[in-house]
C-alpha cells in the first residue's frame, strides 16, 4: 500500500510547441516558467513539457490511452473563482463546470488539446459518502454565477496537482496495476466505466476511465500528450518497496539517478516515483 502522504507531484507532457503551452499555464494561470534542457519547460514545477519525439508531430490522440486531464487544485473556493475570472476575461472556452460533491471543478483544454481541470476541495468531513463509507462523487451543474460572486480574498495560495485522470484501454487491468501493484486504494467505482483511486483516503489521486479508449491501441510515439506522471512518496524506502512490487509483478522497474523510479502501466503510460526531499 502506498503511504497516506503520497501525492501527485507533476505531469510531464510531450508537446509539439512547448512555448505555446505558456499561454495557459504561465500567462493565464500564473505558473512560473523554468527552462529545461533540450528545449523543455516547467510551469510552476507542476506541468512540465518536453518536445515530442522526432518525426511528424501529431496532436493528442482522442481515443488512445493517455491523459484525460491534469487537475490543478486551488486551496480555496476564492482561488478557483479568481481563476475563473481570468479564464473568462481571456475568452477561454470552458468544456464543462461541475459540482462533484467533494469538489467544484472547471474544465478546459490547453493550447495543444490536453485536458485541464481547475478545482477546489470541500472539507473532507463534508464529502458525500455511501452507506459503506466510500466516497460518493456525483456530477451536477456548477453555477458559474455563484462562483463568480465569491468575494473572499483569493490570497496567494498557488495550485498544486490534486489528481490526474487517465484514459485506459482495459479498466480491470488498469485497476489491477494501480491498486494491486502500485498500491493505491479504490475509493469509488462506476461499473465497467471508471474507477477512482487514492492514497490516504483522498477522493482520488488518479482517475481511470474507458469512456473513449476501451480496447484502443497505444498512441504513436510522435503524438503529443502524456509522457509520464510523477508521484512523490515520503522516503526512499517507499520507492524501493514499490520497485519490489513492480518486479514481483513482472512490470518494469528502473531506478535512476537520485533514486527515481521509472515504470509504465499496462498501456505504456509512464510513471515516475520520487522520494520527498529530506
Topology:
Elements: E1 7-15, H1 22-25, E2 33-36, E3 40-43, E4 47-51, E5 66-74, H2 77-89, E6 96-99, E7 103-109, E8 115-121, E9 140-141, H3 144-148, E10 160-167, H4 171-182, E11 185-190, E12 194-198, E13 206-209, E14 225-233, H5 236-248, E15 254-255, E16 261-264, E17 270-275
Parallel strand pairs: 1-4, 5-8, 10-13, 14-17
Antiparallel strand pairs: 1-14, 2-3, 3-4, 5-10, 6-7, 6-9, 7-8, 11-12, 12-13, 15-16, 16-17
- The overall strand count is 17
The profile of the biggest β sheet is: 9 strands, mixed
Helix content: 10-25%
Mean pLDDT: 94
Rough outline: globular
In DSSP terms (H or I, runs of 4 or more residues), the helix count works out at: 5
| Series of secondary-structure elements, N-terminal to C-terminal | EHEEEEHEEEEHEHEEEEHEEE
Low-pLDDT residue intervals, each spanning 5 or more residues: none
**Strand order within the widest sheet?**
9-6-7-8-5-10-13-12-11
The span between the termini is: 21 Å
The radius of gyration over CA amounts to 18 Å
SSE class: alpha+beta
- Report the sheet-strand fraction: 25-35%
Amino acid at each position: 500500500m502506498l503511504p497516506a502522504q503520497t501525492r501527485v507531484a507533476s505531469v510531464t507532457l510531450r508537446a509539439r510547441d512547448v512555448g505555446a503551452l505558456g499561454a495557459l499555464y504561465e500567462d493565464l494561470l500564473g505558473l512560473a516558467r523554468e527552462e529545461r534542457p533540450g528545449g523543455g519547460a516547467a510551469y510552476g514545477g507542476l506541468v512540465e513539457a518536453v518536445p515530442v519525439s522526432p518525426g511528424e508531430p501529431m496532436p493528442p490522440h482522442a481515443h488512445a490511452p493517455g491523459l484525460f486531464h491534469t487537475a490543478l487544485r486551488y486551496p480555496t473556493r476564492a482561488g478557483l473563482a479568481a481563476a475563473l475570472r481570468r479564464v473568462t476575461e481571456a475568452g477561454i472556452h470552458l468544456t464543462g463546470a461541475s459540482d462533484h460533491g467533494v469538489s467544484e471543478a472547471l474544465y478546459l483544454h490547453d493550447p495543444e488539446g490536453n485536458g485541464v481541470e481547475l478545482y477546489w476541495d470541500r472539507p473532507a468531513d463534508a464529502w458525500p459518502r455511501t452507506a459503506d463509507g466510500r466516497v460518493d462523487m456525483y456530477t451536477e451543474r456548477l453555477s458559474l454565477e455563484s462562483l463568480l460572486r465569491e468575494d473572499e480574498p483569493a490570497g496567494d495560495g498557488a495550485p498544486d496537482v490534486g489528481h490526474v485522470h487517465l484514459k485506459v484501454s482495459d479498466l480491470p487491468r488498469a485497476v489491477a496495476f494501480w491498486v494491486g501493484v502500485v498500491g493505491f486504494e479504490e475509493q469509488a467505482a462506476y461499473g465497467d466505466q471508471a474507477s477512482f483511486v487514492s492514497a490516504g483516503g483522498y477522493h482520488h489521486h488518479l482517475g481511470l476511465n474507458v469512456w473513449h479508449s476501451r480496447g484502443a491501441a497505444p498512441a504513436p510515439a510522435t503524438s503529443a500528450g502524456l509522457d509520464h506522471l510523477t508521484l512523490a512518496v515520503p522516503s526512499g524506502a517507499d520507492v524501493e518497496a514499490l520497485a519490489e512490487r513492480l518486479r514481483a509483478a513482472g512490470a518494469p522497474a528502473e531506478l535512476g539517478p537520485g533514486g527515481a523510479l521509472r515504470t509504465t502501466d499496462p498501456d505504456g503510460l509512464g510513471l515516475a516515483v520520487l522520494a520527498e526531499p529530506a
